[in-house]
Specification:
This protein is of the alpha/beta class. The chain contains 5 helices and 5 strands. A 5-stranded parallel sheet has the order 2-1-3-4-5, sandwiched between helices. Strand 3, helix 4 and strand 4 form a beta-alpha-beta unit. It is globular and about 40 Å long. The site of ligand CA2 has 17 residues, from loops.
Length: 145
């Protein structure tokens, strides 16, 4: 089983600013966390981060035929990107949207998610553990399909 884990704009800045919202750990810590969960679960993983909407669309497209599922934190593109929604629909792979913070408790513009419309679940407010929950959810879905 292989998963793609995708992270959107500014997540590479984790730990640098706004630790009150996103925690003090860095993006490298997040990558290590995801790799350790996937190793434990015997899942192959490719982790990507981009600050560019089109690049994220390209990565989602490249999952087609190369991965069994997608974990995606589209970051700010969550609230704007029909292109990412369409890419997820196009590849039709099971996908779970993750947010470190609880977007439902923040500004109203963060309550909207376009990509979530093509996801089997949205996990929010659990920090790094949200990625683990998403990985386990996808594993369960892929093994039982
Ligand atoms: O809570 C999340 O995971 C978000 O996807 C994070 C996005 C935000 O736009 C979404 O509404 C919720 C922002 C990621 C930016 O990360 C930063 C890291 C360090 C300093 C500043 C921003």
């Amino acid at each position: 089983m292989k998963l793609f884990v995708l992270n959107g704009p500014n997540l590479n800045m984790l730990g640098v600013r706004e630790p009150d919202i996103y925690g003090a750990q860095t993006y490298t810590d997040l990558e290590n966390y995801v790799r350790q969960v996937c190793q434990r679960e015997e899942i192959e993983v490719e982790i990507h981060q981009s600050n560019h909407e089109g690049a994220l669309v390209d990565i989602i497209q490249s999952a087609y035929g190369n991965a069994d599922g997608i974990v995606i934190n589209p970051a700010a593109y969550t609230h704007t990107s029909v292109a990412i929604l369409d890419a997820l629909k196009a590849v039709a792979l099971p996908a779970v949207e993750v947010h470190l913070s609880d977007v439902s408790q923040r500004e109203s513009f963060r309550h909207v998610s376009y990509p979530a419309m093509a996801c089997i679940a949205q996990i929010k407010g659990l920090g790094f553990q949200g990625y683990e929950k998403a990985i386990l959810m996808l594993k369960e879905r892929i093994l039982n399909k």
